[in-house]
Amino acid sequence: MVAMPSWNIHTAHVERLLREEGADALGVRDANAFLFGNLVPDVYVGYMVPHTTVRIDYKLTHHAVREHIPLPRHQEFWDFYVAGRDEVSDVVLGAWAHLVADHVYNAHTRAYLARIGMAPGEEARIGKQSDFALFGRTLDISLVPRVDEALLAQCASFPPYSVLESDVRAAVAVAEGIVEKNRAEHVTGEPDYRLLTAGFFETARREAHETILAGLASRA
């Protein structure tokens, strides 16, 4: 699977949004559910939460064509599950934010590889995986979703597919492990990236943040 933002990157985006804007300005009523929603598209794909009750193909969970560097269609998800609806759960808003981040980072990866003349393939995949993992460890994160009745209700009624309680709990356990690992293996200073650059991540992170913020603010 192509390297994409891992849950430490998604969690860092959530923490920045809540810290700098606040839940009210984002139209988020349940920050815990919004945080978990930012993980939901990966729950059933198989590479973040290895043991779930079912598997759902990536192209369905991410509204994307399966290719070397997929571009999730976050606008399509927004049109299906957010636009024009009076009630939208925070899990849904979080899932949309996840797709935005994946799209932005992957679009920047495509552009970067084209700029340096490297075709998508095994060499690019290994370099990207290493650099995304390294970048994720530079992020200072602390939030872990908690399983409560409100979260379980929103997951059960997630419009594309229900997320079962056992799978919610398994995903939360993975998220907790990621936060703990980030603390234990935190990287300070500018990392020595293998393929990408600090400027690449700064630009992609800023665009993802601004795109998510603009969408949430538009309906807050």
* Poorly predicted regions: none
Number of helices: 11
Compressed to H and E, one letter per element, the order equals HHHHHHHHHHH
The fraction of residues assigned to DSSP E strands is: under 5%
**Structural class by sheet pairing and helices:** mainly alpha
State the distance separating the first and last CA atoms: 35 Å
Mean pLDDT value = 95
Largest sheet: none
Description:
With 220 residues, the protein is mostly helical. It has helices at residues 7-20, 23-26, 31-37, 40-43, 58-61, 74-81, 90-116, 122-136, 149-156, 165-184, 198-217. The N and C termini lie far apart (35 Å). It has one domain (7-217). The mean pLDDT is 95.
Give me some keywords for this one.
220 residues, mainly alpha, 11 helices, globular
Please give a quick description of this structure.
The chain is mostly helical and 220 residues long. It has helices at 7-20, 23-26, 31-37, 40-43, 58-61, 74-81, 90-116, 122-136, 149-156, 165-184, 198-217.
Write the topology of this structure.
Elements lengths: L6 H14 L2 H4 L4 H7 L2 H4 L14 H4 L12 H8 L8 H27 L5 H15 L12 H8 L8 H20 L13 H20 L3
